[in-house]
Amino acid sequence: MSTINETLIRDVVNEVLSRLTGGGSGPARRSGGGNGHVRAGNDGLFQDVDTAVAAAKAAQERLAEGGLKARAEVIQIIRDLCHQHAEEWGRIELEETKIGRLDHKIEKVHSAAQVPGLEMMTTEAVSGDHGLTVTEHAPYGVLGVITPVTHSVPTIACNAIMMIAAGNTLVINPHPSGARCAAVAVQRWTRAIREKTGLDDLLCLIEKPTLETADQIFKHRDIRMLVVTGGPGVANAAMASNKKAIVAGPGNPPVVVDDTANIEKAAEGILLGAAYDNNLLCIGEKEVFVVASVADKLLEAFGRHGGYRLNREQIETFTRLALHKDEKSGHWLPDKKFIGKDPQVLADAIGVKLPQGVICLYGEVDVHSPWLPCEQMMPFLPVMRCRCINEAIDMAVKFEHGFGHTALIWSQTVDHMTQMGKAVNTTLFIKNGACRAGLGSGGEGFGSFSIATPTGEGVTSPLTFTRVRRCEFSDWRLTDGAGSSRWKGRIHRKARILERDALAGGRANQSAVPRPRVGAR
Ligand code: NAD
After folding, report:
1. Any ligand 1 atom below 6 A from CB of 249
2. What pLDDT was estimated at residue 490?
3. Which of 92, 283, 306, 497 has the fewest CB within 10 Å, making it most exposed?
């Protein structure tokens, strides 16, 4: 029996038991947590936005009452369940979305469990002659969260850990094609959180998400901030809304390889990055610009690291099948039937039988190829030969589209790295590493599944989801009105003018100005 069926059956049994014990027939019924409040959803699942927001709002108040201890407990539960269920959740996400690779789906659930939580909720303090200023990070309240199909459960897990660490609760509109696996995870978390802490509805998921429910979230007066992870459509919609939005938008990461690069390492790193989850990562390598003098070496080296090279005719045939021009925007878009599919599925379309162990197809293209501008999200990597490093960097800038997302370089020449870094100006700029090094895997620093690019917050952390508050312990004294340093400064200045004027013949009325208490503290 599949897990989804088990879950459905459990839900039905719970519903029947609830009715038998007088819990009510609608979605609203008494909490099993024993704390007496009315639970509006079905273990975190909601049919409409208003009910979900109301539940999340009440939950946020209860979370606040629980203090940091409650947040810590909830986060630990989310982390533990991710690790315990990574295999099951990875599998059901793959079954539902039908994109990506099982091993990487599982790994992503584990990675999501490791994003930073409460440990990042620092408080800054400044003390001096005039007092103590504490800068603390407060919750927004209820956050409206939109998640992508490419990593449904991991994005929700990552967002939830960070947002709850910051003291917020979530109303989530998942991608419709990844909504069922999201529901399984949210129900598990909700039940465990209720059992162990008595808290409910910290994550409220719209069970049947649509563009309309997303729009209702965008407009809901009790949603304080939007956090949107997805492609250009949703990124633009969020930024056009009247709410504060943190937008983790699309990418099309270019890779530059110059003539000083370690070609063997570059080939391995680029292919591993591009092949990860069949190239679904927004940070994943999408096109390569290699300097001509090392282009053949790189193209050969890919073959030793799991790549399978397509020739020009094969690329032309595959291009006609896999990419389509959107008449309205003029942009090249990938055909859904190849997004996130295994290399053999792509190869089957053009009648190629791949040997064992191929993780990614690749091939040489020219500057006019639609593969360069397109965020293909499938394991085919286009490689363009460039005359020199300048041309390679120019191409990288052009095809990154100014998204400000991710770019990579393989080089041992610091000047080239600096030149490219300045030119692309991306949120992640990775030198001599695969894309995931930019999120702490094979590099340093913490990871996240939401890289806020157009709105500029960068790799999101718990602090991203906080309001910054200042609390001042002042040394204010009841003096002659010269209590604060700003006032003291002004009066010092005025006193100096008066002194100067007095020396020059005394025009000003000195008695109108209080005398500063010089050195008074
Ligand atoms: P998508 O844009 O199709 O969908 C993302 C979410 O937005 C879904 O929940 C969808 O239902 C919703 N949505 C789409 N258009 C909408 C609109 N007009 N109004 C309201 N909601 C809307 O993207 P996807 O295919 O799920 O994910 C892949 C895209 O997301 C890629 O472009 C990838 O680069 C990007 N992405 C970015 C990050 C990041 O951290 N920057 C992370 C993951 C994915």
Report:
1. yes
2. 61
3. 497
Binding site membership of 269 for ligand 1 (Cβ less than 6 Å): no
CATH 3.40.605.10 location in the chain: 6-249+463-468
Question: What is the CATH architecture assignment of 6-249+463-468?
Answer: 3-Layer(aba) Sandwich (3.40)
How far apart, in whole angstroms, are the C-alpha atoms of residue 518 and residue 513? Answer: 14
428 pocket-lining for ligand 1 (C-beta < 6 Å)? no
> Residue 229: CB within 6 Å of ligand 1?
yes
Number of neighbours of residue 330 by Cβ within 10 angstroms: 8
d(CA 501, CA 491): 15
Q: Kindly list the distances between the CA atom of residue 247 and the CA atoms of 87, 102, 104, 164, 285, in Å, as whole numbers in the listed order.
A: 29, 27, 24, 18, 21
CATH 3.40.309.10 range(s) for the chain read 254-444
Residue 171 CA to residue 45 CA, distance in Å, equals 10
Query: Running along the chain, 521 residues long, what does each successive block of 10 average in pLDDT?
Result: 46 44 34 43 94 98 97 98 98 98 98 97 93 96 98 98 98 98 98 98 98 98 98 95 96 98 98 98 98 98 98 98 95 97 98 97 98 98 98 98 98 98 98 96 93 98 97 80 55 67 54 35 28
Q: Where are the beta strands (DSSP E) in 176-293?
A: 203-206, 225-229, 245-248, 254-257, 287-291
- For a ligand 1 pocket test, name from 219, 282, 435 the mutation site with the most ligand atoms within 8 angstroms of its C-beta: 282
For residue 327, the tally of other CB atoms under 10 A from its CB is 7
Q: How far away, in angstroms, is 151 Cα from ligand 1 center? A: 10
Give me ligand 1 centre to Cα 91, in Å: 21
Q: What angle do CA 443, 444, 450 make, to 5 degrees?
A: 90
The alpha carbon of 147 and the centre of ligand 1 are apart by a number of angstroms equal to 7
Quickly list H helices, 122-199: 152-165, 179-197
**Beta strands per DSSP E along 280-355:** 287-291, 307-309, 323-325, 332-334
Separation of CA 81 and ligand 1 centre (Å) = 25
Superfamily (CATH H level) for 254-444: Aldehyde Dehydrogenase; Chain A, domain 2 (3.40.309.10)
**Count of residues in the chain:** 521
